[in-house]
Each structure stands twice: as structure tokens, then as C-alpha cells.
Structure to design on (344 residues):
């Protein structure tokens, strides 16, 4: 297939580093998870859950967009297709202090398709281009697009190249590419993350054909060594569920991917650092499990990991003093790890 190359010069981009990003995940990457993840990695670029343009304009804006300054660098992902509405949202995102605005062109859910949101927009590149142009005119933040390598019925490399070319001409310089197509009928969002095969080579080809663009690869990345290999071929990486279920993966990110040799908090130190945050959340009327549900995988692969998960997912709901249970867990996990590390 003939390569698609643009004559545009290579551009020096403003904004945060996207060398390692944590993907936007509905119901998971809320403000509590992001605060927790930031304790483990200083440099990972974090993304919000997708927020629709309608929700931003008509909903509880502080609940949807508010965040702790400690979460930076932080990007807002928007869902929508109305250029005017998305432009208003981009202005609001800048006012709130986000570092980037990202447009979702990858979600295959039936619910969002019905509102012309997500992966179905790959069939409408000019609509995406209009949205990107309007958002760029409305704010000074980087405007990026997260998309698939195709959708059923529109899954050739030529069509992918046309999509990227069209959206790039509207001013988008950064494309976050999930290396699977999306099947828009008959598969659930979960199945769309597993059944269509990963095709990293398509993303690599995209970088070769559009060298002036920033290409971030997403999909199936679960370990630092694979990520380092990918970074030889593309500009950045995005990790989703592995960063959620095994959050201490982020402990290697700063040193191995960003060259930052500053000390990393241990798992126990992360627990201790989360305690004041949890106490503040409880004092404001929140429930402890709103925060701790994101922390269940902190000790994955270590002694006591199952006990830790069970206590925070089940026992916590039966305790009158959930913060007391949290303190007990800090002591118990400290003892278990000390026992593991003691010589026989």
C-alpha cells in the first residue's frame, strides 16, 4: 500500500508529556483513583473518565470536572460531536486548569453511538475535524483525539490514513490510537477490548507515514518492557486496565520511562499517604469505599493481597469505623511484608 505522507514540518508541541498515559476509563478513573495513582507516579499523564459535552454544559460541573491540584498533569476527555458545544466545553476545561482536552472517538458503546459519540465518529472524519477546529479556536490547550484503527465496514489502512489526515488538517497534532478496530454491532464494550485482534503494526505504520504527528499507542500494554519497546516506534504509550488492577505498575514509570531517580513511595507509604485524603472525604460526607475501591490491587502478587482486597471490598461495609479498619490493614500488611523480607 502506498504510504501517506504529509509535507508538514515536524512540530514542537506544547503541553504535558504523553510518554506514559493512564487511559480514561468510565467509572474507574475518577478523582479518587487519580489522586491515588499520582502518589505512585509523578510523571504519568492521567485522564478523566469521558464526560459528555451535554453533561458539562447542563450538569453538576464541579462534581464532573473538579479535581485536586495534586492530580496534575491531568487531561479531560470529552464525548460529543457538536462543534459549538465542544468548543464551549474546551473553554471551560481551560478555566478549570486542565492540561489537555481529548475527544473520544473510540468508545463502541451502543449508548454513546446513539448520541453520535465515540467510535462511530470514525465514519465521519469531517465532523471530527470541525469539532477539533472549534475546540482549538476556543482554548489554548492541546486538543487531542483518541480513536481506534478502524470500525467494522471502515477498517482499511487507507481509510484510517484519510481520517488522520482530515483531522490533522483541522489542527490536531496528537492521536492516541487504540490498536484494535471497534465492532459497532453485536459486541459489548468489554468484548471490543478483547475480541478484535491487536494490530500494533498498523499504529507503527501510521507513525512512519505521519512522522510530524505525535502518535500514542494504546491497547493491551501490561508491562514496562513492552512499553519501552513500543517507545522506540511511537511517541508515547497509554495503559488502561493494567494500571487500574495493578496500580503499583506505575512505580517503575518515573525511573524507567522518564529518567527520574527520585525515591518512589512504597506500597505501605502509599497507604499511609492516602489516609488523610480518605479522612477528608469522610468528613465531607463521602463513603470510604468511594476511594478504597480503586486501591484493591495495590498489593497484587504479594503475601496478604487477597486479605487486603477482601477487607476493603467486603468487611469495610460492615464496620462502624471504616477508618479504623484502614489503620488495621496498614499494620497487618506491614507485618506481612516484614515477615516476607526477614531471612529464615
Amino acid at each position: 500500500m502506498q504510504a501517506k505522507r504529509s509535507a508538514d514540518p515536524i512540530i514542537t508541541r506544547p503541553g504535558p508529556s504523553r510518554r506514559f498515559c493512564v487511559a480514561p476509563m468510565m467509572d474507574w478513573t475518577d478523582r479518587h483513583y487519580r489522586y491515588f495513582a499520582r502518589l505512585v507516579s509523578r510523571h504519568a499523564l492521567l485522564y478523566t473518565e469521558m464526560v459528555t459535552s451535554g453533561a458539562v454544559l447542563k450538569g453538576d460541573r464541579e462534581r464532573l470536572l473538579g479535581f485536586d491540584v495534586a492530580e496534575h498533569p491531568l487531561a479531560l476527555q470529552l464525548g460529543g460531536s457538536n462543534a459549538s458545544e465542544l468548543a464551549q466545553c474546551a473553554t471551560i476545561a481551560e478555566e478549570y486548569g486542565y492540561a489537555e482536552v481529548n475527544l473520544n472517538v473510540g468508545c463502541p458503546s451502543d449508548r454513546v453511538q446513539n448520541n453520535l459519540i465515540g467510535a462511530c465518529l470514525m465514519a465521519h472524519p469531517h465532523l471530527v475535524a470541525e469539532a477539533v477546529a472549534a475546540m482549538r479556536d476556543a482554548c489554548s490547550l492541546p486538543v487531542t483525539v483518541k480513536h481506534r484503527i478502524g470500525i467494522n465496514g471502515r477498517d482499511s489502512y487507507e481509510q484510517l490514513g484519510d481520517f488522520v489526515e482530515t483531522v490533522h488538517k483541522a489542527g490536531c497534532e496528537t492521536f492516541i490510537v487504540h490498536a484494535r478496530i471497534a465492532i459497532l454491532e453485536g459486541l459489548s464494550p468489554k468484548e471490543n477490548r478483547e475480541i478484535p485482534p491487536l494490530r500494533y503494526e498498523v499504529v507503527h505504520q501510521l507513525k512512519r507515514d505521519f512522522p510530524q504527528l505525535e502518535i500514542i499507542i494504546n491497547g493491551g500494554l501490561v508491562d514496562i518492557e513492552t512499553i519501552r519497546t513500543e517507545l522506540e516506534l511511537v511517541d508515547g504509550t497509554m495503559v488502561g486496565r493494567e494500571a487500574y488492577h495493578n496500580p503499583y505498575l506505575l512505580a517503575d514509570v518515573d525511573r524507567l520511562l522518564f529518567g527520574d531517580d527520585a525515591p518512589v513511595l512504597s506500597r505501605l507509604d502509599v497507604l499511609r499517604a492516602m489516609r488523610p485524603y480518605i479522612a477528608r472525604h469522610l468528613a465531607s460526607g463521602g463513603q470510604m469505599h468511594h476511594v478504597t475501591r480503586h486501591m484493591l490491587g495495590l498489593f497484587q502478587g504479594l503475601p496478604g493481597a487477597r486479605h487486603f482486597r477482601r477487607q476493603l471490598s467486603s468487611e469495610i461495609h460492615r464496620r462502624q469505623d471504616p477508618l479504623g479498619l484502614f489503620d488495621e490493614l496498614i499494620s497487618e500488611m506491614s507485618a506481612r511484608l516484614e515477615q516476607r523480607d526477614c531471612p529464615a
The chain has two domains: 20-258, 267-341. Confidence is low (pLDDT under 50) at residues 1-12. The two ends are 62 Å apart (CA to CA).
